[in-house]
Design a protein that fits this description.
- This protein is mainly beta.
- 10% of the residues lie in helices and 55% in strands.
- The protein contains 1 helix and 9 strands; from the N terminus they run αβββββββββ.
- Strands 1, 2, 3, 4, 5, 6, 7, 8 and 9 form a 9-stranded antiparallel β-sheet that branches.
- Strand 3 and strand 4 form a beta hairpin.
């Protein structure tokens, strides 16, 4: 199975890049929607982060999915005096591998480019963030196809 080594490389790159500075701990939590599973996030600077997930996709191509994204956060776009936390808008680029299983991808894994857009709420007094995202995806193999993911989630940060 060629997709397992590629998935391992994606996660190794995500963690390797994230550990370069190791400033704010590692966030671990859940992502619910399309896909649903385990989510991780590591900040690598004041506005940059790497996130990844190992999750089940319930779309037309039901199968296990790995994805990793490099994200940039804009903290100045949304501000409010009504809450103490921070509310960054984020966007980035990444990749996904959807392993073969049922549906259209029963013979080949789908490999695609992700362009995530989302919003996150970072609590001021707790090591927790909530997020919601929409992610257009361009699958590049075995066929070129457009897809979209949308999900919400929560992560707890270990310091």
């Amino acid at each position: 199975m060629k997709t397992v080594p590629v998935a391992f490389v994606l996660f190794a790159l995500a963690f390797g890049m994230s550990e370069a500075r190791g400033e704010n701990g590692l966030g671990v939590g859940v992502i619910v929607g399309e896909p649903t599973g385990v989510s991780i996030k590591k900040w690598i600077g004041g506005t940059r982060a790497v996130d990844a997930a190992a999750a089940w996709s319930f779309s037309e191509n039901k199968s296990f999915q790995f994805h990793a994204d490099y994200l940039y956060h804009n903290f100045s776009l949304l501000r409010s005096k009504d809450f103490n936390g921070r509310l960054p808008v984020y966007y980035g680029v990444g990749g996904r591998i959807k392993l073969k299983d049922t549906g259209q991808n029963d013979e080949n894994a789908l490999i695609g480019i992700r362009i995530p857009f989302g919003i996150s709420y970072l609590f001021a007094d707790a090591p927790v963030d909530l997020f919601a995202e929409v992610v257009p995806i361009l699958d590049v193999t075995p066929d070129t196809d457009l897809d979209i993911n949308a999900a919400i989630g929560v992560r707890f940060y270990f310091r």
